[in-house]
Amino acid sequence: MAKEIDPKKTKRAAAYDLWMNAPNPMVTFFKTLDVTPLVKLSKRKKLKFNMLLDYCIGKAAVSIPEFYILPVGDRLMQYDTIAVNTIVKNKEGEVSSCDILFHSDLAHFNRDYLKYTAQVAHTCKDRDLTDSMVIGTSAITNVEIDGAVGMNSGIFNNPFIIWGRYKKKLFRTVLTISFQFHHTQMDGAHAGRFLENLQKEIRSM
Prior knowledge:
Number of helices: 5
Distance between the termini: 30 Å
Radius of gyration: 17 Å
Structural class: alpha+beta
Largest sheet: 7 strands, mixed
């Protein structure tokens, strides 16, 4: 469920005043993650790597209160749930968008991921969960990239994560991601905590 809240009654009041009308309120962090546990689990259990990473992204976000609010237009919205978006190659060879509600149970999340990505690929219709705060992702797995900065559209203020192909380094596998967020939603400290959480969740898999 989503509801409008009064920014002045939140901890983001000052950030709302400072950043809502800024020419570019988006901030991007880069981090190189050790994704060795995900690669091993993917191969051992025959699970999709991107699904596992999406799951860890959701799990890393749910404990941070700032992820449950989002500036939408000139309003500040509060959500009860978090979803993770993934980009799907559809049957026409184009891309479609698929939102998947985060669930703490990996098997449950995996079932939803497989079901809805297949549905979107077949119908070529985006699946949007408007009642959840959605973390966007884009995986460009056919190339190795050192980073990417998302656009400031002025329409979509959702946090957004981009990654390319992971890289082998000696006995580890690493992946550089970019994390873009709206400064009204969170500060650098919150974003940094999320990225630390993400690495911890990956290592715990």
